[in-house]
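Quick one, tokens below. Sequence please?
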């Protein structure tokens, strides 16, 4: 994940600190809408899947993970973690 994701990570941290995971999901979905089909979109979709699972939406989260991981595998990229994404913002 590059530094362009740092502002998004900071916003997501705010949502998680305030126990507003659903707002975090919305934030990531909005970011996906604005991101073209590329490696960054696959990374964001994986983070979304992890957050959905954390929110108890396992089925939806698992589908997001599968879509993202298929793209990441095709691109030969590693799977980002939620923790790594949040570290961009100094969490």
């Amino acid at each position: 994940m590059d530094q362009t994701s740092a502002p998004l990570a900071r916003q997501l941290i705010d949502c998680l600190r305030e126990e507003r995971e659903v707002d975090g999901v919305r934030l990531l979905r909005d970011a996906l809408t604005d991101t073209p089909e590329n490696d960054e979109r696959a990374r964001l979709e994986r983070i979304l899947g992890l957050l959905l699972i954390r929110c108890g939406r396992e089925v939806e989260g698992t589908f997001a993970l599968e879509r993202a991981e298929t793209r990441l595998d095709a691109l030969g990229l590693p799977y980002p973690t939620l923790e790594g994404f949040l570290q961009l913002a100094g969490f």
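The mean pLDDT is 88. Residues 58-75 form the longest helix (18 residues).
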